[in-house]
Specification:
Elements (H helix, E strand, L loop, with lengths): L1 E4 L8 E4 L1 E8 L3 E5 L2 E5 L3 E9 L7 H23 L1
């Protein structure tokens, strides 16, 4: 994943490469019986980002904080796009 972020310490927006670890979840309940009829709820597969990493070398504490804030802000969008 790539994140473009504007930092106060840099004159131009920068693009940061982010590595994510994710798992595929499913919200289905599987096989079930309803009034004697056997059914299957296959559910929907979706992505959950479990962890992320990026090269923090050369960034100040404030920069790292801002990048992490932007990652957290965009995480649900990334999960949605990966799930499609």
């Amino acid at each position: 994943m790539f994140l473009e972020v504007e930092l106060d310490s840099r004159p131009e927006p920068i693009e940061i490469s982010i590595t994510v670890e994710y798992s595929v979840q499913n919200d289905g309940i599987g096989p079930y019986e309803f009034w004697g009829q056997r059914c299957v709820d296959k559910g929907r597969a979706y992505i959950v980002i479990e962890d992320h990493s990026w090269n923090q070398a050369g960034f100040s504490e404030d920069d790292v904080y801002e990048v992490e804030r932007q990652i957290t802000k965009r995480q649900s969008q990334w999960e949605e796009s990966l799930s499609e």
